[in-house]
Automatic annotation (TrEMBL):
Similarity comment: family membership: Belongs to the binding-protein-dependent transport system permease family.
Entry membrane topology: Multi-pass membrane protein
Keywords, in A-Z order: Cell membrane, Membrane, Transmembrane, Transmembrane helix, Transport
Protein name: ABC transporter permease subunit
Localization (cell): Cell membrane
Species the sequence originates in: Microbacterium thalli
Domain ABC transmembrane type-1: 15-209
SUPFAM superfamilies (UniProt xref): MetI-like
Transmembrane regions listed in the UniProt entry: 20-41, 53-77, 89-110, 148-169, 189-213
Length: 219
């Protein structure tokens, strides 16, 4: 316990690093994943821009990267990170790896949530003269906004988990804090302090996501 008290000044910067990685990873991975999901939805058979070749390629890419365990992906993308000028350790590398890992999962979640839009809504929009592009980029995302918010909430919780794993490659954050000061020093108090902060973050994200989705769905 005394060791935990001594390390409290380091706990808060570690929390800030975790939130920093989550925010940037959600920004980059979330945007890329949304575009991937939109492309999957648009090019599937019977959709707005059906294209068997494009859909097949995207589907294979997503199915290839999505099941890779994140700890393995961390090692696998190190050469790619170095190729674009990012070191294979540190917060920047953590953001890079998490963004890559998350965008494929987000792409699949976005595709599945866009599919919840009823065909009748799209047919009504087409009958009213709306272009396919307008329907794809404006109508469909708006109609599926509630499920999308819940999907992104789920992803943010997964990002918290990824930031903890990224601590294994000195990416900073609560994962590295718990690993270096708790696990390696045989101090469960420090480890559980990091766990408690992570639980608070996850509960806060889940509460806000559920509240926002509920408000959207009631409109």
């Amino acid at each position: 316990m005394d060791r935990l008290i001594d390390l409290l000044p380091e706990l808060w910067p570690a929390t800030a690093e975790t939130l920093y990685m989550i925010t940037l990873s959600l920004l980059f991975g979330g945007l890329a994943g949304f575009l991937i999901g939109l492309a999957l939805y648009a090019t599937r058979a019977g959709s707005l821009f059906p294209n068997r070749v494009v859909f097949g390629i995207l589907n294979v890419i997503v199915n290839t990267f999505r099941p890779i365990p994140f700890i393995i992906l961390l090692a696998a993308v190190q050469p790619l990170a170095r190729a674009v000028g990012i070191r294979g350790i540190g917060i920047e590398f953590g953001v890079f790896a998490i963004s890559i890992a998350s965008m494929f999962a987000i792409g699949r979640i976005v595709e599945q949530n866009l599919l919840t839009v009823r065909p009748g809504v799209i047919e009504a929009a087409r009958a009213a003269g709306a272009s396919r592009s307008r329907i794809l980029f404006r109508l469909v995302p708006r109609e599926s906004l509630g499920p999308l918010v819940l999907g992104y909430t789920f992803i943010v919780v997964a990002l918290v988990d990824m930031t903890a794993i990224a601590g294994a490659v000195a990416a900073g954050g609560l994962g590295q804090f718990a690993l270096v000061n708790g696990f390696r020093q045989f101090n469960p108090w420090v480890t559980w302090a990091a766990v408690l902060v992570i639980v608070v973050i996850v509960q806060g994200v889940q509460f806000l996501g559920n509240a926002l989705a509920r408000r959207i769905l009631r409109r």
